[in-house]
Structure formats: structure tokens, C-alpha cells
Amino acid sequence: MLLKSLVSLCVLAVAALAVPAQEKRVHHHGDLSERPHDDAHGFQYDHEAFLGKEEAKTFDQLTPDESKDKLAKIVERIDMDQDGYVSHAELHSWIRHRQRRYIQENVDKHWKDYDKNQDGKIAWDEYKNTTYGYYLGEEFDDVDDKETYKSMLRRDERRFRTADRDGDKIATREEFTAFLHPEEYDYMRDVVVQETVEDIDKNGDGKINIDEYIGDMFTPEDGESEPDWVHTERKHFSEFRDANKDGYLDAAEVANWVLPGEVDHADNEAKHLIHETDTNKDGRLTLSELLDNMDSIKSSTITDYGGMRVDEHDEL
């Protein structure tokens, strides 16, 4: 099970389920959602951005009255100055909190698997032996694609060594978080870029050409023509991604593509949510406005928000 989990860990495309293929390589700090942000086709992105990914899954099990009760508790917590309004700053802070909470919970889940001696740290040997131990002595001979697993081991060790800032081959909780979520740490930036290039660069020249770029997103069936979004991505490659116009994406260009750190997606989402639900357009939200929207729009962003499990001990 751990080895299977590693496959998921090693894939840099965190958003792989419902995200359009052309978006899957882009790393947003503390991904707000794995869903596409397209209100015309539903509000699941807003749902997960507001609640966090795990809590959002519980909403469908709640009755409308339970949803309203949960929403009221959430709004009370978001309204930090208790003035009866949710401001942009408060909403932005809340969404960022949900981002951080998701990362912390993800690290907690993996920590229990790898800290075998329960000393509050994870040594490289602990991680390696827990993940690959059964296979190491056999050189992956009983695995169909053993070269893939050998490559995964080398890649994991490289990422672990980069996350291990003091070089003692033992990861603190912060260093292990950097190992699991390298997109969250500036000093892991080169690893994210390197792994992305390795994933897409099929001819091994250390660069990404247009065919490799498109091939990572779209593989046509026999006789299938390219959809419009693929044509758009071809234009994006030549007009925006390939900044020096040499026909390839080098490491710097890949970094600009997959790590758009200058974009604050939590801030953008807060603005979007206020725009969608601020009935009187005063730039802030009241519980009444949220409830009104929840009652009038089935499966709206507001209805989605109602499902969060509010734990009395879960502090902002």
C-alpha cells in the first residue's frame, strides 16, 4: 500500500482528477481545490476552497437545516472582529487557513506511517525502508517495471536530501512537509521544476518541446481531432510559455509556468465569493446574505459551504 501511495506522491500533478489536463502541472500554493474553477459547470471549486478538501466531501450528507446551522457557525468563526460582517480580509484569511490546514492534515496522515521509532523525526532510512523495504533486497526483481521503481527511489532520495536543510538525513516536521509539499517552499523550487521536466521530457534533452508539452496533456484516440483547448495550449506554448522563442521550455520557463508564485489564489477566490454572494454590493457579507443565497440557488457556492464539520477545538 505504501509503495502504491508513493506513486501518487511522486506525481507532481496534484490536481489530476477533475482539472482540465492543461492545468494539471500548475502548482498553486496550498491548492484551493482539485476542481476546475468554472461556475458555469458547478461550484465545486468554491465549495472546496471555502471548506477544505476533506470537509467538503461531507456536505451531501447534510439536510438543509443542518447546512444552515453549520454555515452560521462557520461565519461566526470567520468574522474575527465580531462586527456581524465578513470582510474580504477575513474571508481571505479563512481560505488561507483552510489551505494550511489541508497541508497539516496531509503531513499528519503520512507522519504516522514513517516515524517508526516515534522520536518526532523521520530519517531517510525510515522512509526508504517503510516505502521500499520489501523490494530493496531484491532489487525490484519481482516488479514488472523495476526501472521505474529504481527511478522513483532515486527521485525520492534527491527530494528528501533537498528538503533536509541541515543535511543530517533526518527530516524534522517542517522538512518532511517540504518533502511532501515542495511547491510550498522557495528552497524546493528547483526540485519541483526538475521533476516536472523529467516527467514531460521524453527524449531526454533536458528541455520540453511542443510535442512533449501537448503529449503530457492530450493523447488522441485513433482518428480523433484535437479539441479547441489543445489548439489554445499550442498558442500558449509559442506565445507565452516559450519566452525566448527557441521552440523549447527550459528550466526557467518551466518555473514560470508551473510555479506562478505571484498569483494569490486565496485572494482571488475571496474576491470571487464576495462578488457572487454580496447582494447589496457593499463589499462584505452577512449571514443573512449567505443564507438568502443558499435558499435561492440549489448547489450554489453558499449551499456547498454549509457542509463543514465545525470542531470546537479547531481554532483559526
Automatic annotation (TrEMBL):
<feature type="domain" description="EF-hand">
    <location>
        <begin position="188"/>
        <end position="223"/>
    </location>
</feature>
<feature type="domain" description="EF-hand">
    <location>
        <begin position="151"/>
        <end position="186"/>
    </location>
</feature>
<keyword id="KW-0479">Metal-binding</keyword>
<keyword id="KW-0677">Repeat</keyword>
<feature type="domain" description="EF-hand">
    <location>
        <begin position="66"/>
        <end position="101"/>
    </location>
</feature>
<dbReference type="InterPro" id="IPR011992">
    <property type="entry name" value="EF-hand-dom_pair"/>
</dbReference>
<feature type="signal peptide">
    <location>
        <begin position="1"/>
        <end position="18"/>
    </location>
</feature>
<dbReference type="InterPro" id="IPR002048">
    <property type="entry name" value="EF_hand_dom"/>
</dbReference>
<keyword id="KW-0732">Signal</keyword>
<feature type="domain" description="EF-hand">
    <location>
        <begin position="102"/>
        <end position="137"/>
    </location>
</feature>
<dbReference type="GO" id="GO:0005509">
    <property type="term" value="F:calcium ion binding"/>
</dbReference>
<keyword id="KW-0106">Calcium</keyword>
<dbReference type="GO" id="GO:0005783">
    <property type="term" value="C:endoplasmic reticulum"/>
</dbReference>
<protein>
    <submittedName>
        <fullName>Reticulocalbin 3, EF-hand calcium binding domain</fullName>
    </submittedName>
</protein>
<dbReference type="Pfam" id="PF13499">
    <property type="entry name" value="EF-hand_7"/>
</dbReference>
<feature type="domain" description="EF-hand">
    <location>
        <begin position="265"/>
        <end position="300"/>
    </location>
</feature>
<keyword id="KW-0256">Endoplasmic reticulum</keyword>
<comment type="similarity">
    <text>Belongs to the CREC family.</text>
</comment>
<dbReference type="InterPro" id="IPR018247">
    <property type="entry name" value="EF_Hand_1_Ca_BS"/>
</dbReference>
